[in-house]
Amino acid sequence: MRKFVTGLRRKWITRVTGVEFADNVSVSLTARFSSRSRGAIVISPHTLIAFKSMIRTTRSDGSEGPVHIKENCFIGGGSLILPGVTVGPNAIVGAGAVVFGDVPPYSIAAGNPARIIATDIEVGPYGRFLDAGPNR
Fold first, then answer.
1. What 3-state DSSP class applies to 100?
2. Which helix (H) or strand (E) is 117 found in, with range?
3. Whole-model pTM?
4. DSSP letter string over 18-86?
5. Which of 6, 73, 126, 130 is most buried, by the most CB atoms less than 10 A from its CB?
6. Rounded Cα–Cα distance for residues 88 and 136 (Å)
């Protein structure tokens, strides 16, 4: 049932805000998106957007900055991705982070303002560490 509801919500978000989701993106029911133009937010495959996260493309002066979240990323709960940010492939944004600038590939960004706290990490789909879980 949850998969059905989240699928409907993604379609509604795409129709209303113009967010472009890849087919296998996981988005929490409480994640929020704010954009004035279609295609300003692009989320690539195997990415997870956690609960109460917010992605914005509108700056305080009214201009827009596109946001692109590349493949195999994890966007932590309660985080805020601001206009003009690109989150590189295989990157993690920590819970509650406020991201003002780009996050390089294979890195972890956390804090307010977000800073790079680790580099050269190895993650799989949805930003999950390769050695995590029961299949170690």
1. coil
2. strand 115-119
3. 0.89
4. --EE-TT-EE-TT-EEE-SSTTSEEE-SS-EE-TT-EEE-B-TTS-B--EEE-TT-EE-TT-EE-TT-E
5. 73
6. 26
pLDDT tens digit sequence for 62-86: 999 999 999 999 999 999 999 999 9
Q: Which of 115, 121, 113 is nearest to 103 (CA)?
A: 115
Instruction: Quote the distance between the C-alpha of residue 5 and its chain's center.
Output: 19
Q: Which residue has the higher pLDDT, 4 or 86?
A: 86
Residue 65 contacts residue 81 (beta carbons within 8 Å):
no
Residue 75 pairs in a beta bridge with: 49, 93
In 3-state terms, what secondary structure has residue 87?
strand
Tell me: the pLDDT tens digits for 28-52? 989 999 988 888 999 999 999 999 9
What is the Cα–Cα distance from 22 to 133, expressed in whole angstroms? 25
